[in-house]
Amino acid sequence: MAKEKNEFWEWTKAFLIAIGLAAIIRYFIIAPIVVDGESMMPTLNNGDWMMVNKMDTPERFDIVVFHAPENKDYIKRVIGLPGDTVEYKDDKLYINGKYYEEPYLDEYKSQEPGPLTPDFTLEEITGRKTVPEGEIFVLGDNRLYSKDGRHIGTVSMDEVVGSTNVVFWPLGNMRLVD
């Protein structure tokens, strides 16, 4: 009888430790998220399951997950970092006056008869010339149908959950994304 109680206790401890480790990993290191909507197409599809790295510091053109003002999480691409000026002119991205190619938009640009991204400056959207310290400016890849920095302004780094570049479900679509 004592041996059965001891074995039961050992299994219970192992189970509790496993649950504790899973919780720590889930809340502090990595977490799954489901893409909801078409704002990141063609890079990401509605219903894709992705792994979010919560330990990563976002860099330019990374895909990030953040808490949006509507009490839901958004998935967008980092365009502007603190101190950057951002401008779109003639469907081309300029950061700090320098032109940047966006190869992830090529598929949609070839399909659209007009500009994919209408002209704008960060100052026109936010009233500030540069992205403030501790904030980022984000855009969806599906520029014609994305609620992003052009609508919500800059995003505080405190609201960023993490970056993501791994689609793990559905299995047939498993891939790394740029």
Automatic annotation (TrEMBL):
Pfam families: Peptidase_S26. The keyword Glycoprotein does not apply. The chain crosses the membrane at residues 14-35. Residues 9-169 form the Peptidase S26 domain. It is a single-pass type II membrane protein. GO terms for molecular function: signal peptidase activity. It catalyses: Cleavage of hydrophobic, N-terminal signal or leader sequences from secreted and periplasmic proteins. It is found in: Cell membrane; Membrane. CDD domains: S26_SPase_I. Its EC number is 3.4.21.89. InterPro entries: LexA/Signal_pep-like_sf, Pept_S26A_signal_pept_1, Pept_S26A_signal_pept_1_CS, Pept_S26A_signal_pept_1_Lys-AS, Pept_S26A_signal_pept_1_Ser-AS, Peptidase_S26. Keywords: Hydrolase, Membrane, Protease, Transmembrane, Transmembrane helix. It is an enzyme of class 3 (hydrolase). Belongs to the peptidase S26 family. PANTHER family: SIGNAL PEPTIDASE I. This is Signal peptidase I. It comes from Bacillus kandeliae.
